Every structure is written in C-alpha cells, then in structure tokens.
C-alpha cells in the first residue's frame, strides 16, 4: 500500500498515525465498551449494585478521557468522534436493557436513540465536509446528566423514588428535544461557515 503524499496540501491530515490513535484517552473511551457486557449481565441478573458500580467506572473513564486529552494535548477529531460514538452506543444499549428488564418506557429509549443516531450522522457529515467535530456543549451536558440520572433511578428501582420517575421522564424528553434543536443550530451554523 502506497503512502499518502503529505507534501500535497490536499492530502495533509488524511493519514492516521498510530501514535495519534493509540492514546490513553482513546483507550479509556474504548474501555467503556468492554465494561458494557458486564453492566448488561448485572442488570439482566438483578445485580443493581454491581451494575451501578460498573456504570460509575464507565462514567469516571468518560470524564477522565476528556480531561487527559486536554491536559496531555491529545485532543483530536478522531478522539472526539470516538468518545461521542462510544457514549451513544453505551447509553443506547443501557436504555434498551432498562426497557427490557426494568420497565423504562420505550418512548424514552426510542427518543434518545433516534436523537443520538441523528447526531452521529450529522457529526459524520461535518467531519467529511468541514473536517470538524462539534464538541459537547452545555445543553448536551445537561441532557447527558439527565440520561445518567434516569439510568441510575431505573437501575436501583427503589419504590420510594417512583414519584421522581414521572418528573424525570418529562425532563429527559425536554432535554432530548432542546439538545437536538441546539445541535441542529450548531450543525447548520458550522455547515454555512465558509
């Protein structure tokens, strides 16, 4: 296989260097996928505490990968894309599992998964057209926090928390809608930028 001529300005940045792919932040992103089957098994077998501990490890690795990428100056479009993709797979898989084993309403999982699929498709389009990946913003972080909260509430499934569920379901739907509208705004703003 021939090397890409990096002296040609059109080809610069098209070659992935191994050292830029195999970074600690990217490894931490991928590690969340390895924890996923263990979380699913814990949920399916009613081991809520084990599931929560594994989820906590996943969330810590998610926070740590972004922090390390910034601290070690390893932020890259590949890293951003990988982190977002792993997040979407992780959340979608957990939500579907909670629908099956913990009675999470199907419409919540469906709304979040459709939103996330559209965001991944839009992100891929931006990466191809503009060589740009949108970073998470405040609205995305609020939505992510609410997704995490609903995952925790449905995982522990304590009857005394049932009164919170309805309010949380409404908050998640509002967050899905507002974060998607915000993403569309940023998407078109980036697309229209010269």
TrEMBL record:
GO terms for molecular function: CDP-diacylglycerol-glycerol-3-phosphate 3-phosphatidyltransferase activity. GO terms for biological process: glycerophospholipid biosynthetic process. InterPro entries: CDP-alcohol_PTase-I (IPR050324), CDP-OH_P_trans (IPR000462), CDP-OH_PTrfase_TM_dom (IPR043130), CDP_ALCOHOL_P_TRANSF_CS (IPR048254), Phosphatidylglycerol_P_synth (IPR004570). Its main location: membrane. It comes from the Bacteria. Keywords: Lipid biosynthesis, Lipid metabolism, Membrane, Phospholipid biosynthesis, Phospholipid metabolism, Transferase, Transmembrane, Transmembrane helix. The chain crosses the membrane at residues 34-60, 106-126, 138-156, 168-188. Belongs to the CDP-alcohol phosphatidyltransferase class-I family. This is CDP-alcohol phosphatidyltransferase family protein.
């Amino acid at each position: 296989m021939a090397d890409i001529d990096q002296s040609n300005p059109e080809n610069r940045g098209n070659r992935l260097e191994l050292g830029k792919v195999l970074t600690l932040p990217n490894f931490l992103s991928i590690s969340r996928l390895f924890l996923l089957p263990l979380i699913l098994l814990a949920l399916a077998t009613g081991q809520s505490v084990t599931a929560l501990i594994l989820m906590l490890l996943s969330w810590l690795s998610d926070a740590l990968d972004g922090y390390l990428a910034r601290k070690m100056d390893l932020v890259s479009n590949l890293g951003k894309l990988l982190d977002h993709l792993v997040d979407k797979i992780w959340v979608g898989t957990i939500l579907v599992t909670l629908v099956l084993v913990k009675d999470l309403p199907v419409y919540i999982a469906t709304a979040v998964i459709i939103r996330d699929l559209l965001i991944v498709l839009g992100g891929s389009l931006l990466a191809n057209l503009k060589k740009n990946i949108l970073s998470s913003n405040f609205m995305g972080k609020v939505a992510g926090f609410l997704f995490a909260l609903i995952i925790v509430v449905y995982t522990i499934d304590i009857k005394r928390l049932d009164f919170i569920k309805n309010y949380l379901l409404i908050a998640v739907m509002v967050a899905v809608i507002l974060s998607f509208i915000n993403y569309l705004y940023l998407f078109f703003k980036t697309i229209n930028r010269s």
